[in-house]
Amino acid sequence: MTLEKEQKKNNLQKIFEVIKTMASKPSGLIGLSILLFHVILAITSPLYVPYDYKAIDPSLMLQAPSSEYWFGTDSLGRDVFTRTILGGRTALTVTFFGSLIALVWGGALGIFCGLVGGKIDDVVMRIIDAFLSIPWILAMLLIVSLLGTTTLVLIPALGFFYGKGIVRVARAATHDVIAKDFIVSAKARGHSNLSIIWNEILPNVRDAIMVEGAMRWSWMLLGFSSLSFLGFGVSPPTPDWGLMISNARGLMSFAYWAVLAPIFGLSSLIIGINLTADAFAKALGIDRSTKAPV
Amino acid sequence: MRTICKLISVSLVSLLFSFSLANASSGVFKLSHDLGFGKDTNLDAISKGRLFQVVIMTQNRLVRKDLKGVTSAELATDWSANADATEWTFNLRKGVKFHDGSDFDAEDVKYSLMRVKDPDIGSPAKKSMSSVTDIEVVDSHTVKMKLNTSFADFPLLLTDYRLRMIPSGSGDTIGKTGVGTGPFIVDKFDPEGTTILKANPDYWEGAPGLAEVHVIAIPDGEARVQALLTGQIHMNRYVPFSQKKIFDGNSKFNVSVVPTGNWRGMVMRTDTAPFDNPKVRKAVRLAVDRQELVDLVMGGAATVACDTPVAPSDQYRLKMKCPQNINKAKSLLKEAGYPNGIDMVIHVSTKEPTWPTIAEVLQQQLAKANIKAEVKMTPSKSYWKETWMKKPVAMTRWNERPADSALHEIYHSGAKWNESFFKNPAFDENLAKARGELDFNKRKKAYQNAQKTLWEESGTMIPYHVSKLVVTSSNVKNLDEVEVFSVRWHKVKMK
User: Fold this and answer.
1) Interatomic CA distance for residues B353 and B191, integer angstroms
2) Number of domains observed in the structure of chain A
3) Does the predicted model carry a pTM greater than 0.95?
4) Percentage of chain A exceeding pLDDT 70
5) Per the domain annotation, does A110 fall within a domain?
6) Cβ A148–B376 below 8 Å, yes or no?
């Protein structure tokens, strides 16, 4: 067995161990189960939804839940069950890839700033501070007003705005390891900055950044749903929880089913991601409140 | 005996006191406006940014519509025309005073109406007065209006909700003061906050039943419904029918359904491809199932329209049917050079709560004719400035106007608010012909021919005229169940 294969085997083993540790606690098990349930639903739901999500029918307006329409119908006569189980697809896709983008650019820039320090670090961090002072929702509204609400706009835009916080976390984690002997030795050996980042720093800050990324995912989900709620997320008739809540909120007092179903979908997914991120942090030995190893 | 006299005296005084209290203005009536014109909002009825919720309570017209929709006297007591209806003489009400204490007279009428024609003001109501060449002051309470054409329906034009009487020479300040002869006086004007009106005790129809009216800026339609539910406002005339069930059977609210000439629609700019081709516009219109829109969006409480802005109750309304015809729509698109259909973006906002729903239903209906519509939300606060008349396809809404005003203002090639940039010489010609025609039937035919042109070529899709759902708090009394411009506001009371 070559060294490379052994390394891969070790990595896989580590992943399984982390998952096993996460699932060993009730909260972690619940979180993982909810998340897995939503992911499976998002991937497979188009195969078995009972009705066309966009079929409008005046004769079926605001039907209460029944054996035919499990979650009732909305104000345009569309099946709420169909729209609810399809409603998480866009949100999960946009926020998952948005979080990945946030993780990559935020992590890379944070580590780079932490390593090089000096004026470059100062300038970049002040720019990040400036961006942090702008309310993200206003900036997002400006972007979607100018560029539209396609997923190709939403994913990078959300990825950018939610990556700012990761820059700070990655930089702080880098500062913790940069003074360690192995970094000094690598510098003395004449390794390039890129090599030091990839081989020495990244393995030591990766866990903290990933936990932060997981948390950003749930915040981004809430943010994305807020945009949809305001009408600036996905375009109708695409089923989306935020949009469904927005459309049905005025009917809450007499057609509660049209608003409760998407609320349940959204909140359960956020709870699932939060519990998973918590368990993930604990399994990696990171205290989420301080981002410090425990 | 002396005791009995005392008792009688005290009783009489008490009776008189209670009688005077019963007639005194009391209570605060709160309503909202949507801050549609942002910081340009003002109290000059003829300007683009007029806050009509205030103006209709502070200023009067010469002629108004009564509760049955017939022209009746307001500040003019009666009127007559010469033989060919090119000169109209109006006798004015005597003893009427403006809020600033000055007397209302013929000079004020001349000033108020002639400034509508002032090109520097650029009033959207200019078209309503375009036929008036001069206003002659015959005496202090008589005016003679001279028209450039015969116009048998001229008094109907004066019922336009913007043609209000203001003191002569007050044009520079009227936007902030709102001085008029109406039942309420502007106490504090705050377009982005709360505008406060106080009762005018000297109102010529009698002192108002309310002590104050508060007009509050609430830009979002949903927020206005919530404000009504929580008692922050006492009346909402824009409650979507989908929310009728919230108020039905609730003893805290009165719900009434008022048929109106108000309409919602979708504008396609006729100067922008592919909508510069009349066949494409007709295809879009044919692809729409209007009855389904009425049922889904209005819960059935609306009258189907075939792209005419003329109110269902108007004598000049063209009565026709326009069922959905997908095959015809597809073939028109093919003839226009779009065999695979077209893509379009419908711009909406929550400025009008039903717009997003209308657009969503349209999206499904149009898809059947290979017209792929994307619904794009835009900020409600800047909708009229940044979206309407700017984007190729956008939603619109208009309040009721007399047939002549509606057709002129929205479609005449020279109209300021020609939102679809519609230019059609035959249409303009029919309008001109109608105005000059003394024979009612011929006049009616000309107006209806103009509406036929709209069905064939216009850029505005009008699916229905709404029946308005007016919801008021149950402590609001004596509110006429008619469209907002005909309400006799001085009669309204708070229990």
Assistant:
1) 21
2) 1
3) no
4) 95
5) yes
6) yes
Find, in chain B, the residue whose alpha carbon is nearest to that of A251: B243
Strand B253-268 to B393-398 pairing? antiparallel
The distance of B243 to chain A (nearest Cα, Å) reads 6
> From the CB of residue B443, how many other CB atoms can be counted at a distance below 10 Å?
22
Which residues of chain B are within 8 Å of residue A232 when distances are taken between CB atoms?
Answer: 377
- For B24, the enclosing helix (H) or strand (E) is none
Q: Which residue of A has its CA nearest to B359?
A: A236
CATH number at residue A182: 1.10.3720.10
The amino acid at B309? P
For residue A150, tell me if it sits in a domain.
yes
Q: By the CB < 8 Å criterion, does B343 face chain A?
A: no
- Establish how many alpha carbons lie within 13 A of residue B183's alpha carbon, considering only the half-sphere containing its beta carbon: 20
Tell me, what amino acid is at B344?
M
Is the link from the previous residue into A237 a cis peptide, with omega within 30 of 0? Answer: yes
Task: Determine contact: B304 vs chain A, CB below 8 A.
Answer: no
Q: Do the domain assignments include residue A3?
A: no
How much is the ipTM here? 0.70
Decide if A94 contacts A224 (C-beta within 8 A). Answer: yes
Residue B19 corresponds to which tokens in the numbers above? Answer: 């009688």
C-alpha distance from A253 to closest chain B C-alpha (Å): 6
* Per-residue 3-state assignment (H helix, E strand, C coil) for chain A: CCHHHHHHHHHHHHHHHHHHHHHHCHHHHHHHHHHHHHHHHHHHHHHHCCCCCCCCCHHHCCCCCCCCCCCCECCCCCEHHHHHHHHHHHHHHHHHHHHHHHHHHHHHHHHHHHHHCHHHHHHHHHHHHHHHCCCHHHHHHHHHHHHCCCHHHHHHHHHHHHHHHHHHHHHHHHHHHHCCHHHHHHHHCCCCHHHHHHHHHHHHHHHHHHHHHHHHHHHHHHHHHHHHHCCCCCCCCCCCHHHHHHHHHHHCCCCHHHHHHHHHHHHHHHHHHHHHHHHHHHHCCEECCCCEEC
Tokens of A212: 């932060």
Nearest Cα to Cα of residue B57 among B225, B220, B240, B235: B235
Average pLDDT along chain B, 495 residues, taken 10 residues at a time: 59 50 75 86 93 96 87 94 91 97 97 94 86 95 93 88 95 96 96 95 96 94 90 91 82 89 96 96 97 90 95 91 96 96 93 90 96 89 90 94 90 93 96 85 94 96 93 94 89 93
Min CA distance, B362 vs chain A (Å)?
11
Model pLDDT, residue B13: 53
In sequence order, the 6+-apart residues with CB closer than 8 A to the CB of A161 are A131, A136, A139, A140, A223
Residues of chain A found within 8 Å of residue B377, distances taken between Cβ atoms: 149, 230-232
Q: Which domain holds residue A113?
A: 21-290
In a domain? residue A267 = yes
- Judged by CB atoms closer than 8 Å, whether chains meet at B242 and A251 is answered as yes
